[in-house]
Amino acid sequence: MIKILELFGGAGAPRKALIDLNVKHKSIDYVEIDEKAVRAYNVLYDKTIAAQSVVGYNLQPDILVHGSPCQDFSRAGNRWGGGKEDKTRSSLLFETLKIIQNMGVWKPRVVLWENVKGVLDRDMIHAFNDYLVEMETLGYTNSYQVLNAMDYGIPQKRERVYTVSILGNAKFDFSRLEQKNMRPISEFLETNVSDLYTIKIPSMLRKIEALKMPRSNTRYNRFLDVIDTHCWTISTRQDRCPNAGIIKISEQEYRYLTELEISRLMGFSDDDHAKLLTEYPNKKGKKNATLYKLYGNSIVVNVLVAIYKVLIEMGILSAEEVGFA
What we know:
This protein is of the alpha/beta class. It has helices at 13-20, 35-45, 93-102, 125-137, 202-210, 259-265, 270-279, 289-296, 301-313, 319-322, and strands at 2-7, 25-31, 63-66, 110-116, 140-148, 156-157, 159-167, 231-232, 247-248, 254-255. Strand 1, helix 1 and strand 2 form a beta-alpha-beta unit.
């Protein structure tokens, strides 16, 4: 049985990936300061966890997964940085290092970190490099690569840096990841969508009007596109620019992606979404901002599934230990 610890755990995508693989596992704990995300995790996985911070935390998992806050690395954010001395939300990634240090002689066999491509930018990469060096000091061999959800069956152009650190000298082989053909976007979209999702905000309508103009003539269409074969990176809100893209209803009407569509595009099942709706039901006449945020902050489950499979194939997680159901 695999013991997993989820830091900055959100809606629990790392655990969801193990469930999808039918891997016998135990979530020895989950750490998340966002109370709404904790409630979502509890309803999905039948837990009674309370919100808590990663600061000062200590436990002993086989796999440690942390998707630390990305806002201060993101190209769409304020670019405040995430170095050890920056004291930003993104610098909380170094709390993971403290947690591992506090474990003493015993350490997780695998540490997986996911974040935005912005961590590789010239003005941000110092923080990323510091993280890699400190992981090496702790006895890990690091491998990282930018992975796109489109290569794992999901029609969402979501590129993220995945860093896999293995205790000892083994190096994670990204070339062994099983890529899958992108499924048609139609498989993820609802039919007979409520008028609630039709775009009516004047600022958004102006950007839609600008779609008809040459791109060189306007600034309004810079971050707004009509979804054809795939959507763009799903964020925590869809009623703003940039967003994941809009759906064309007719020549004059467009709509946002729904919460259910967003959940599917992040690798969650319709049953998962139904459970979350029991905790965060839709309010009459309003879109569900809580669920948009939960899904937008998550990791794409399908990519994690591919990474776990390689760890099993490499013997980092043994077949006997995994105990496929």
